[in-house]
From TrEMBL:
UniProt function note: Catalyzes the condensation of pantoate with beta-alanine in an ATP-dependent reaction via a pantoyl-adenylate intermediate.
UniProt-annotated binding residues for (R)-pantoate: 70, 163
Sections of the chain in a coiled coil: none
Keywords, sorted A to Z: ATP-binding, Cytoplasm, Ligase, Nucleotide-binding, Pantothenate biosynthesis
Transmembrane segment boundaries: none
Gene name linked to the record: panC
Superkingdom of origin organism: Bacteria
Note: The reaction proceeds by a bi uni uni bi ping pong mechanism.
E.C. code: 6.3.2.1
Protein's name according to its UniProt entry: Pantothenate synthetase
Length: 289
């Protein structure tokens, strides 16, 4: 197992990445907030493969940064799980070359920071409605990571489906000139989508949390049988969540690119759900057949 090189200063990271790219390296980046699980590892392994796809010198890199600007004032920034040593070990197992983990958040967001990236349209509604300012923080920090790294490809998980849509729109509209690759959700054997926030769940809450994936799967099964009424599908999913019990944030069926709600669940539409199990907010989604 290789040990990835840890870089804590964004300026040093930028210089190293620029030199590598100028030297012909193909760079694949995985931005994370750390506390890595098997879902992250699928991204890291694919980054290794994508970096080496051209047959030349490839550079697979990851960032670990709990971004304060995407947390609301009452959210879990201070207690978000962290394990840098464990994360570095997992990055090494996945073949990552370098890891950027800023030692001081002020190196990414200095006092007096005034520039923000807002992506309208796909950031509206869903998590954008529940977490005001969240996607502004996401888009801004990802823009910074793209500018620091200048990757050829960046990899994100599809569990955060709206986040992926926001980043794709930003890359398209601002002409970043890189590929954004979405990777499938990785799940526990019982269907629960892997999430760093699953660590918050008690044993009882963990058992109840599987209602999110079951509500999505049942909608997929219903559409496979011919159900196309989005309202009926949403109602069944909401009932499944409330019976868990879980406190529903939203249940929606949307167009896969615009994320606008649909009345008819056409093939390829996406069901997205968010609910609180205990005090923990979880999300899940799935494409409808």
């Amino acid at each position: 197992m290789k040990t990835p090189e840890l870089i804590t200063e964004p300026a040093a990271w930028q210089a190293r990445c620029a030199a590598a790219r100028d030297g012909g390296a193909r760079i694949a980046l995985v931005p994370t907030m750390g506390y890595l699980h098997a879902g992250h590892l699928s991204l890291l392994r694919e980054a290794r493969r994508r970096a080496d796809v051209a047959g030349g010198p490839g550079l697979a890199v990851a960032s670990i940064f709990v971004n304060p600007t995407q947390f609301g004032p009452t959210e879990d920034l201070s207690r978000y799980p962290r394990d840098l040593d464990g994360d570095l070990r997992k990055c090494g197992e996945a073949g990552i070359d370098w890891v950027l983990a800023p030692s001081d958040p002020r190196s990414m967001f200095a006092p007096g920071h005034e520039t923000w990236v807002d992506v309208s349209g796909v950031s509206q509604g869903l998590c954008g409605a529940s977490r005001p300012g969240h996607f502004r923080g996401v888009a801004t920090v990802v823009t910074k990571l793209f500018n620091l790294t200048r990757p050829h490809v960046a990899l994100f998980g599809e569990k955060d489906f709206q986040q992926l849509a926001v980043i794709r729109a930003m890359v398209r509209d601002l002409a970043f000139g890189l590929e954004v690759l979405g990777m499938p959700i990785v799940r526990e054997p019982d269907g629960l989508a892997l999430s760093s926030r699953n660590a918050y769940l008690s044993a009882d809450e963990r058992a109840r949390a599987v209602a999110l994936s079951r509500s999505v799967r049942e909608a997929q099964e219903a559409t496979a049988r011919g159900e196309r009424d989005a309202a009926a599908l949403r109602a069944r999913a909401r009932a499944r969540l409330e019976a868990a019990p879980a406190r529903v944030d939203y249940v929606e069926i949307v167009h896969p690119e615009t994320l606008r709600p649909v009345d008819v669940a056409a093939p390829g539409s996406v069901m997205l759900v968010a609910a609180y199990v205990g005090a923990t907010r979880l999300i899940d989604n799935g494409r409808l057949p």
